[in-house]
Amino acid sequence: MTAKIISKGILRAIGILFAIALGLYFLYKIESVLAYLAIAAVIALIGRPVILFLRRKLKFPNTLAVVLTMLLILGVFVGILALFVPLLAEQGKNLSLLNIEDLQQNVEGLYREITQYLGLSPNDIEKSIKESKIFANLDFGFIPNFLNSLMGTLGDLSIGLFSVLFISFFFLKDSKLFQSGILAFVPDRNEQRTIKSIDKINNLLSRYFVGLLLQILILFVIYTIVLLIVGIENAIVIAFLCALFNVIPYVGPIIGGGLMIVLTMTSNLGSDFSTVILPKTGYILIGLTIGQLVDNFFSQPLIFSNSVKSHPLEIFLVIIIAGLLFGVVGMIVAVPGYTAIKVILKEFLADNKTVKSLTKDL
Are 200 and 308 in contact (CB under 8 A)? Predict the structure, then answer.
C-alpha cells in the first residue's frame, strides 16, 4: 500500500466525518422545522382513520374529507384552548400572580394552616429550613419574568401552529407524500421493502395514537367526575390538563396528580384547612388512585398489546432506557420509535434469530 493510497484514504475519511458533522449541524439548526414535521405527522396519523371513514363509508372526495378532518382537529384545538382561558383567569386571581406580596401571603397562610393542623412548631420548621438553606435562593420575583417570557413566545407559537396545520393538511391530502420523500433516498432494490415497512408503521402508529387519545379520554372522564363531586371550579379544564400529562409515561401521572392537588388547594385558599382543604384533597387522591388503577390495568395493556404489538415489560424497558438517554422527550417518542424500528428490522432482517423473537407478533 503506497503513501498516496493511504493519504487518499485519510482524506476520504476526513471528508466523510466533515460531511456527517455538517449534516448534524444542519439538522440542529432546523430542529424547529423537524419538530413541526413530527407533530404534523402525528396529527396526520390521528386524522387518518377519520379520512378513511369519510372516504370509504360516506364516499366523500379526498379533498373534502381532508378539509373536514382538518376543521375537526382545529375545532378541537380551539375548544381546548378556549377552556383554558377561565382556568388561567381564575388561577391568576387566586394566586395573585401579578402581585408578589399577595402571593407570598397566600402561601404563608396555607403553610401556617398545615403546620397548625399537624401540630408542628412553625419556629422549629423555619429553623430547620434556614439551616438546610433549601429556599435560600427562592425569589418570587421570577414570576413576572416568566410571564413576560411567556408572552414573548406566543408569537413563535402562532407561527408554529400555522406551520403544523399547513404541513398536516398536505400529509393528510397526499398520504404518499412522506413516503415519496423517504423513497428518494432509498436504493431501487430496497424500494418495495421500504414501502411495505412504511405502510405497516402507518397502520400501527395510527392505532397507537388513537388508543392514546382513548386513554386520555378515559382519565379525563374519571378526573372530571371526581372534581365535580368534590366541587372544584373549572373541573373540566383541570381534569383535561392532568389527563394530558399522561402522554409522558410513568412520570406524567405523577406530575398531573401533583398539579391537580395544587390547583385544588389553591382554589380553596382562605377556607379552613381541616374542614375544607384537607377533605377535598383526600377525595382528589382517591380519584387519582382510581384513575391510575384503571389506566394501568385496562387502558395501557389494551393500547400497547393491541396497537403496537409489544409486551408491557418490553415497553417498560424501552421507555426507561429512552428516558435515561433523552429525557422526557425520549420517553414520549419511545413507543412509536421502537415500533418503527421493529417493523424495519422485521422487513430487512427477517432471518435474524433475535429479530424473529422481538417481532413475532407483528
Answer: no
DSSP conformation class of 298 = I
Written as nine digits, the cell of 303 is: 393500547
Q: Which of 185, 167, 165, 186 is nearest to 177 (CA)?
A: 167
Q: What are phi and psi of 30, to 5 degrees?
A: -105, 30
CA-to-CA separations, 180 to 51, 174, 186, 205, in angstroms, rounded: 20, 10, 10, 19
CA distance 22 to 293: 48
Contact 82, 234 (CB under 8 A): no
Query: Which one-letter amino acid corresponds to residue 203?
Result: N
Q: How far is 29 from 292, CA to CA, in rounded Å?
A: 39
Distance (Å, whole) CA 44 – CA 170: 9
How far is Cα 7 from Cα 9, in angstroms, rounded to an integer?
5
> What is the per-residue pLDDT across 55-84, written as a single tens digit (0 to 9) for each?
888 888 888 888 898 898 888 888 777 766
Task: Quick: pLDDT tens for 319-349.
Answer: 888 888 888 778 878 888 888 888 888 887 7
What pLDDT sits at residue 95? Answer: 47
Q: Which three cell numbers stand for residue 206?
A: 395510527
Segments in the chain below pLDDT 50: 95-99, 103, 134-135, 138, 140, 142-143, 146-147, 150
Helix (DSSP H) and strand (DSSP E) numbers for the chain: 14, 0
Question: What per-residue confidence (pLDDT) applies to 156?
Answer: 64
Alpha-carbon gap, residue 152 to 331, rounded angstroms: 28
Domain spans, the chain: 33-175, 187-362
- Give the list of residues 6+ apart from residue 114 with CB closer than 8 angstroms, or none: 273
C-alpha cell at 307: 396497537
Radius of gyration of the chain (CA): 26
Q: Is 308 exposed, middle or buried (0-12, 13-18, 19+ CB in 10 A)?
A: buried
Q: 262: closest CA among 232, 286, 294?
A: 232
Closest CA to 291 of 194, 347, 215, 358: 215
Which residue shows C-alpha cell 380519584? 287
Query: Can you point out the beta strands (E) in 164-218?
Result: none
